[in-house]
Amino acid sequence: MSPAQKPTVEGRQLIRAMWRLIRPYWTSLDAKSSLLLLGISIALQFGGVYASVLISDAQRDVGNALGARDLPGFSHGVAYMIAFMLLGVVVPSYGEWVTQRIRVRWRRWFTGHYITRWIGPHAYCQGELHRGQLDNPDVRIAEDVRDFVSSALGLSLIMLGSVVTLVSFGAMLWNLSSAWAIPIAGKTTQIPGLMLWIAVGFAIFSMWITNLVGRKLIPLNFDRIRVEADFRYGLVRYRDKVEAVALSHGEAVERLGAVGRFQRVVENFHELIRAQRNLTILTQSLGQANSLVPLAVAGLAYFADLVPLGIIAQTRYAYGQFAGGLAWFVNAYQEIARWRANIERLTSFSDAMDTAQREFESGGIATLRAEPERIQLIDLQVEAPRGKLLLDQLNASLRPGEHVAIAGERGSGRTTLIRALAGIWPFGSGRIEQPARDRIFFLSRQPYLPIGSLRAAVSYPSASGAFSDERIEAALRTFGLEALATRLDDDEPWEQKLSGHEQQRLALARVLLHKPDWIVFDEAMSDLDEAMEARVYEVLAQQLPNAAVLSVTGRPAALEHLPRRWTLHESVGGHVALEAT
């Protein structure tokens, strides 16, 4: 496996990236209710710490009662301790419940925010131009957002609780050990706040060595998310293309690919668990050593009859709480490492989408509303994203009711021209004047069939209930799909159930349902025979006589129904030009 990717967001950049991810939600309207819940959660955090302080006082009273053999005092101390322990259980539990509600609200908003940014007109360019930074956008939206929100709330609230714990029990430790006289080498030495300084020193050492041992986890967690997503995507892709693989007898290659992708998961996992093992050994050792420190130091004072047993018990508990607050970084290091990876992935995802959107909006091709209505190309030049000229000086027009074929050799740029007309390829210059986008219907060679019922598939891009059963059944019958008319509510993987020519005919049925004024075909009937393609143009002329048709096709039978031509051909200089006839 290649070395783990090193983090690129560190120091101040990490803080800025974290704030950039957090700020949109907490400045939104949805955050008002969450701020109230956050206030309640913080109050409950404080309540949990206060319960711990009360438990500490109860332990002191129980210890003193034991030392004095005071049975009534011991009974009262135990009763109070039980009550405070119950409080220490109930308050944090409700605090976690409130935090989970905030987490759900934040994740719902955050996921919607990224879905809106990703699923839009810029998505095609984003994927084409920034494929490396946009690997597995589905995982980034589903899992990285979930983990980022969970860790952001969990870590911040735990850190807040740790700060309150440090303040509460730090003051207690200082008071308890401020006048301790410790016998060392036959002499009695007094160090104000001795146990507090010991806890701080041990915590600083623990944080330093934990970061030294555990920092490898950050790039490993970044790679873990990526390789897991690649493996999962490969399996989903095989499921979606299982028929094509079976027809090609490509199962052996698919198995090798799946095993290879999973091997990268295994290699990453081995590296990750080795790093986690080393960190766990370290943190467990530090925890065990830290639990012995208050006993060793306080024991010296106790056996010298300098402090009573109750103070020893309270000191040990207070030291444990204070040290636990200081050890927040040590104990949370693995989650911090995962969170760092989430921040990196979401930041790079946002950066790639922002960059693609800027490139898209500054692409150069102006798209304007045409008055009177028509589709017109005016001095249109289409370029590659980095400036290479693809189509040069295109001038042509399509008026209502006209049927025009886009002719040319494969690779001449016919599909690129369709993308420019659809508004998903803005790179170049010149103008495209056209009607409102919702009155133009584009069909590509490979139709998209959404997940869900057949009714949803044939109604797309409209909602599932947009058309009556009678209209759907009539449209299906027109293109020889009457056998599907009884299965409108069947929920199947239709992309696998229907053959290529059935999918194209189903997409043509959508045209009859939506009745657009402008229809653009990009080899949308390539899987149909010539007779069926000619039949489609006849149906369109009968049922949608006023609709204009622009079609990428070269079949003679189809060209009889497309009297005008936009012909793409190589011009002087090696560029592709357009001749309209």
How would you explain this protein's 3D organization?
With 581 residues, the chain is α/β, with parallel strands linked by helices. It folds into 2 domains: 11-361, Up-down Bundle (ABC transporter transmembrane region fold); 366-580, Rossmann fold (3-Layer(aba) Sandwich). Helices cover 63% and strands 13% of the residues. The protein has 19 helices and 14 strands. It has helices at residues 11-26, 31-67, 71-118, 123-129, 137-177, 194-214, 217-240, 242-248, 251-303, 309-326, 328-331, 333-361, 414-422, 454-459, 469-478, 494-497, 500-514, 530-543, 556-559, and strands at 181-184, 187-190, 366-369, 375-383, 389-398, 403-407, 428-434, 440-443, 452-453, 491-492, 518-522, 548-552, 564-570, 576-580. It has a 6-stranded mixed sheet with strand order 8-11-12-6-13-14, with helices on both faces. A 4-stranded mixed sheet has the order 3-7-4-5, covered by helices on one side. It has a two-stranded antiparallel ribbon with strand order 1-2. β4 (375-383) and β5 (389-398) form a beta hairpin. α4 (123-129) crosses α12 (333-361). The relative contact order is 0.09. The mean pLDDT is 81.
